């Protein structure tokens, strides 16, 4: 299993509607890619802030794949490209964490 986690920071002044639109695009586009095993979208949880907490993101995306090959199909899929094209102008930074 490969876990692909992406943390998005939106540009200052981005609206809740723009962040929600990005989340909706992830659900409506990325979830349709045949190699996606599971997909989770969230925002920073309202948990106690500890010294090790990372909360400097606006939206998180976690996608599970059965293999690295499945991940590679996802990375080059036209729906993945559409997702990026639809929202990238609103992002100030993106951090990707892949683990297996």
The geometry reads as globular
Helix content: 25-40%
Question: Strand order of the main beta sheet, please?
Answer: 2-3-1-4
For the record, the count of structural domains works out to 1
The second-level CATH architecture is 2-Layer Sandwich
Q: What is the fold named in CATH at topology level? A: Alpha-Beta Plaits
* First-last Cα distance: 6 Å
User: What's the β-strand tally?
Assistant: 4
Number of helices: 3
Helix and strand run: EHEEHHE
**Main sheet: strands, sense, barrel:** 4 strands, antiparallel
Supply the helix-strand structural class: alpha+beta
Q: In what range is the share of β-strand residues?
A: 25-35%
Please report the first level of CATH classification, the CATH class: Alpha Beta
**Could you tell me the mean pLDDT?**
95
What is the CA-based Rg, rounded?
A: 14 Å
Note poorly predicted spans: none
Task: Give a verbal description of the structure.
- There is one protein chain.
- The protein is α+β, with helices and mostly antiparallel strands.
- It has one domain: Alpha-Beta Plaits, CATH 3.30.70.
- Helices cover 32% and strands 30% of the residues.
- The protein has three helices and four strands.
- It is globular, with a radius of gyration of 14 Å.
- The mean pLDDT is 95.
